[in-house]
Design brief:
Number of helices: 17
Strand order of the largest sheet: 2-1-9-8-7
Distance between the termini: 123 Å
Order of helices and strands: HHHHHHHEEHEHEHHHHHEEHEEEHH
Radius of gyration: 53 Å
Structural class: alpha+beta
Strand content: 5-15%
Length: about 400
C-alpha cells in the first residue's frame, strides 16, 4: 500500500517536473492560439506572457493564419488590434480591415435622386436666365418679315442696286399710286415744263385723290407734274397721259415698255393713275428699281424732296409722303393706296454716306413698316461696308 502511494507521489512529482521543464515550449506553441482569441485589455498594457518580440512573431503567424483561414476577417481584425495594443501603438490594421461601408438604403437613394433632380432643374433655370449660352441668333432681326405687315418688301443699296433685304419681292400685286412715278418720268422726258395741257372730261372725272382740274381750261406741265408726284392727283395723271399718247390706253402701253427698259421686268400698266385695273401689276423689286432710276434725274428728284409746292395758279399742294416729316433721312418717296392694293410705298433714304431704296406693297401699317425697314437697311449696309473695308472688325462686330 505504502509502495503504491510512494510510486504515485513519485509519478506526480515527475509529471510536475516535466510540466515545469516543458513550460516555455508550451507558451511558444500557444502564442498563435492566444493571438487568434481576442483579449479585452486596456490600450498600452503589455501582458507578462508576451515578450517584446512577440509582435514580429505574431505577424508571421498571422500571415499563416490568413492563408489558412481566409474566411475569418473579424478574427484577423481583433488579432491585429491585440498585437498593436501589446506594442503600445494605435492599431493600424483595425482601420484597414474594418467592416465595409453600408450600402445606401432606399431612403438614402431617394434623397440623392431628389437632390440631383433639384440640381438639374437649377442648371436648366440658369440656362434659361442666360440665353447667351444658347445657340447664337442671327445678326439680322430673325422676325423682321413677321414684324412688318407688308405682304411684299425690299431694300436696295441705292448706289449699287445690291439687295439688302427682301420679303416676297417678286410677288405681283396692284401697285396703286406708286405707279405714278412711271407716268411722271415719261412726261418729264416727253414734255416741256411750260407746255399747256388741255383737260378732257375723262381726265376731270377721275376719282380722288385729285386736284379738281376743270375741263375747258389749260394747265402747265410743271403744275400737273407737281400734282401727280406730291398730291397723287389722278386727274392730272390722265391729263398728262392724253397729252403725251393721245389716250390713257396708249399711254399705259408706253408705261409698260418704259418700265421694262428701266429694269422692271414684271410690271404691266393699264392706267396712268394706278387705280385698280384687271391685268395691272408690279412688284416691290420693280418699284424699287424704277424709283432708283427716277431719282437719278434732277427734275424728278427735286420735286420728291418738297413738302409743299404752290402751283402757278396759286394752289398749295401738300406732299402725301409723311416720311419727310417722320424720318430725317427721307429724301423722297411715293405713296399709294387702293382697297385691293392696300398701302404701297417706295422711297429713297440717306444717312451720312449711305443711301437705300425701300419699297413695300400690301401693308396695313405702312409707316411703322417703313421705319423698321429703313433702320434695318442702314445697319445692313453699314455692316456690309465694314466687312469690305475690314473683314476682321466686321466679324467681331457681328459676334458682339
Amino acid at each position: 500500500m505504502r509502495m503504491s502511494r510512494f510510486l504515485s507521489v513519485a509519478l506526480s512529482l515527475l509529471l510536475a517536473s516535466l510540466v515545469v521543464l516543458l513550460h516555455p515550449l508550451t507558451d511558444a506553441q500557444a502564442a498563435p492560439a492566444a493571438a487568434a482569441t481576442p483579449h479585452p485589455k486596456k490600450k498600452g498594457s503589455v501582458p507578462a506572457s508576451h515578450p517584446a518580440t512577440a509582435p514580429a512573431k505574431n505577424k508571421t503567424n498571422q500571415k499563416k493564419q490568413k492563408a489558412a483561414h481566409p474566411s475569418a476577417p473579424a478574427k484577423r481584425t481583433a488579432s491585429t488590434a491585440g498585437k498593436a495594443a501589446a506594442a503600445g501603438k494605435q492599431p493600424k490594421a483595425a482601420s484597414h480591415h474594418s467592416a465595409p461601408a453600408k450600402k445606401a438604403g432606399p431612403a438614402h437613394q431617394a434623397k440623392k435622386t431628389k437632390k440631383e433632380t433639384k440640381k438639374g432643374a437649377a442648371i436648366k433655370k440658369g440656362a434659361a436666365r442666360h440665353p447667351a449660352h444658347a445657340a447664337p441668333a442671327d445678326s439680322a432681326p430673325p422676325d423682321l418679315e413677321q414684324q412688318i405687315s407688308a405682304r411684299s418688301a425690299i431694300i436696295l443699296d441705292a448706289k449699287t442696286g445690291e439687295e439688302l433685304f427682301a420679303k416676297y419681292p417678286d410677288n405681283p400685286r396692284q401697285p396703286a399710286s406708286t405707279i405714278k412715278i412711271v407716268t411722271a418720268m415719261i412726261a418729264i422726258k416727253s414734255l416741256k415744263g411750260d407746255e399747256l395741257v388741255d383737260v378732257s372730261s375723262h381726265a376731270a372725272s377721275m376719282p380722288s385723290s385729285k386736284v379738281f382740274l376743270e375741263t375747258g381750261k389749260q394747265y402747265q406741265v410743271d403744275d400737273l407734274l407737281n400734282a401727280v408726284l406730291l398730291a397723287s392727283a389722278n386727274d392730272a395723271s390722265v391729263a398728262l397721259a392724253e397729252k403725251v399718247a393721245g389716250s390713257e390706253e396708249n399711254f399705259a402701253n408706253l408705261m409698260t415698255l418704259s418700265a421694262r427698259m428701266w429694269g422692271a421686268r414684271h410690271t404691266v400698266c393699264r392706267t396712268a393713275s394706278g387705280l385698280t385695273a384687271l391685268g395691272q401689276q408690279s412688284t416691290s423689286r420693280d418699284l424699287a428699281t424704277i424709283f432708283r432710276y427716277a431719282m437719278q434725274h434732277d427734275a424728278f428728284a427735286r420735286r420728291m424732296r418738297e413738302k409743299f409746292i404752290t402751283t402757278s395758279y396759286g394752289k398749295v399742294l401738300r406732299n402725301h409722303n409723311r416720311a419727310l416729316w417722320r424720318l430725317d433721312c427721307a429724301l423722297g418717296g411715293k405713296t399709294g393706296y387702293t382697297v385691293v392694293a392696300r398701302q404701297t410705298y417706295v422711297g429713297l433714304f440717306g444717312r451720312d454716306d449711305q443711301t437705300i431704296v425701300v419699297a413695300l406693297m400690301g401693308s396695313e401699317t405702312m409707316w411703322s413698316d417703313l421705319a423698321k425697314l429703313v433702320e434695318y437697311g442702314f445697319k445692313k449696309q453699314k455692316d456690309g461696308q465694314l466687312a469690305r473695308v475690314n473683314p476682321r472688325a466686321a466679324d467681331g462686330a457681328a459676334r458682339n
